[in-house]
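Notes on consecutive records. When two proteins share a document, each keeps its own sequence and its own C-alpha cell line. Never mix them. Below: protein one.
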Amino acid sequence: MAHLDPEQLGAALSALAPGRLIDLRGTTVTSDLLSRVLDAAGRRPGRMRLDRARFTGDVRLSGVTFAGDVSLDGARFDRLASFFGARFEGNVSLAGVRFTRELSFHGVTARGHVSLDRAVMSRDALFSQAVFGHGLSCERARFDGYATFDGARLGDGAAFRGARFGRTLSFRKVSGHAGFEAAHFAADAYLSATGRLSAARARADGLLDVAAARCGVDLRHLEVRGPTTVRLTDSQADLEGAVLRGPATVMGRGRSTLTSLRQVDAASLELFGLDLSACRFAGLAHPAGVRVKECTFALTPRGVRVSMRWPMVRWFSRRRVLADERTLHGRAGDPGDPGASPDRLAALYAGLRPSDSATSADFAFAAMEMRRQAGHGWWLSVSWLLCGYGMRMGRAAVWLALVMALMAAAVAWSSASHAGHRPGTVGPALHP
C-alpha cells in the first residue's frame, strides 16, 4: 500500500471490511496510512500480518479491537508505539520487534498469548493494568528504559527468562505466575506476585525487593550486589546457593517458611518471623553474619532412651535444633549429605546469633553436642554426662543427690554392721 497512487490506494482501502485479513508484511507504514487502514476496517480488523513492517510515525491504537491474531515479528517502530486501551481477541506476536521510542501496553486486554521474545525496548515500556488472558512471554527481551507491570494480570503466567532490564523495573501487585530465570537487573528491581515467582540464577546489580503472598518464591543461585529485601506472607522461599553481597533481610508474616539457606554467601542476613523448622543451613558461608529474630526451629523429642552404646541409658530434654541435625541423625532427608557433618554443624551452631536467650542457649548446647559427636575429647562426654556442658544444672543436681544418697546409704550400712559385731557386756557376780 505504501507504493500505490491515491486512486489505487482508495480502491484497496474500499475492499477492506471489519474482520477481514490485512497483510502489510515488509511495508513502510506512516501514521496517515495506518489510520486510513484502521478506519477502513471499522477499527476492528481481523487477522493482521505486519511482520518486518516499519512504522515511521507515531502509532496510536486506542479503542481498536483486533478480532484475529496479530503478527508483528521483526517489525520496527521509529516513534511512539501506543497500544493503550486496545483489545486483542487472539494471539499477539511481537518477537524480535524493535521499539526505538516509548512503548505503552497500559490497559491493554489480550485474550490470547502475547510474545515479546527477543524484543528491544529502547525507551520506557509501560505494561501496567494490562490483562494477558493466556500469558506473556518476554524471553531474552531487552528493556533499556524504565519498565512497569504494576497491577497487570498474567493469566497463564509470564516468562522473562534471560531478559535484561537496564533501568528500574516495577513489577508490583501483579497477579499470576512470573519467571525471571537468568534475568539481569542492571538497576533496582521491585518484584511482587500472587502466583509462583522465580528469579533463579538471576543477577541484580542494584536493589532487589521481592514481595510474595500465598505462593512459592524460587531464589536459588540468585546474585545481588545491592541490598536485598524479601517479604513473605503465607509463602515459601528457597535461597539455596544465593550470593547476597549487600545487606539482606527475609521477613515473614503468617505461615511463611524458608526452606533452604544451603551454600548461601551473605555477609549480613537478617531472618525475621519465619518458620525455619525445615530450613537447611549446610554450607552457609558466613553464619556469624546471620541474625535470627522471632523464628521457629525444629524441636528434638524428649524422654529416656536405652541403647547398646555408652552411656546405655540417656535422657533428653526438648531443645531447638537445625533441620540439618535431624538429617544427620537419619530422621529426614539424605543421611549421607556431606554438608551435615558434626564439625560443620558445630560451626553453624556456634556462629548463628538468635535474638532470644532460650534459642541461643539451645544452640550453644548443640554446638558442644556436635563437637562431642565428632570425637573432640573424652572430657566432652564427661561434661555432657555430669552437667550437660554446664547448661543442664538439673543434671548436676541429680548426680549430687545420687552421690549423697549413696553416701547416706553407706553410712547407714556401716553403722548397722558395727552394731551387729559389738561384744556383749557381763555385769559383776552377786554372792549371797
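Protein two starts on the next line and is unrelated to protein one.
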Amino acid sequence: MSNNFSDALKKMRYKKGLSQLELAEKLFVTRSTISRWESGNRLPDAVMISRLAKVFDVDVNVLLSAVEQSDDCPNVIMVDDNKIILNGGLPILQEVMPNASVTAFTKPKEAIDYIKANRVALVFLDIEMGTISGLDVCREMLRINPRLNVVYLTAYRDYSFDAWSTGASGFMLKPITAEGVKQQLDHLRYPFRMGGEGS
C-alpha cells in the first residue's frame, strides 16, 4: 500500500521540528492519532486536513492529493443481514476491485466499530436490516468519517428519495452486478485510487 500521506506528514513534521505530541497539541488530538496517521493505519478527515494545512502553512490541496494517493489498497465493506446476499456480492466486489480489501458484516454495529478502527473508503449498505434502518446506519458512519462513500443496496426503488437525503454516494437495486458496481465507482462523492496498473 502506498503511504504518500504518512510519508508527507512525517517530512512536514520533521521540517517544523515538531514531535508527535507537539503536533497533536496544536491540532487538539491525541499523540496516538498522529501515530496512526504516520503509520498509514488511518487518514485524517477534512477538518483535520484543514488544520494540518494551517500548522504546516501549505495548500490544503497538497494534503488532499497525498490522502487520495494513499488509497492504493482501499478498504471496502458490505453490510447486509442476508448471508446469501453477502455470499453472492463479495466475489463480485473482489472481481471489480481486485486490489481492495473487501470485508462483509451481517451486523451494522460490527460494521460501525470496524469503521471507527479502520480507514474505509467505500461501504455497500443494505437499507432494511430487521429493525435497523440502513439510513440511520449511514448517518452514523458519515458522522465517524465524512469522506466515506456509501452506496445503498435495496430491493425496493421507493427508498431512493430518502436515501439521497443522508449524504450517500449512490443507490443500487439488488442483486449486485459487476456492471452496476462499476457504474457506482464512476460516480462516488470521494473517488479513490483502485491500485494496480492503470489506476
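For the record: The chain has ten helices and seven strands.
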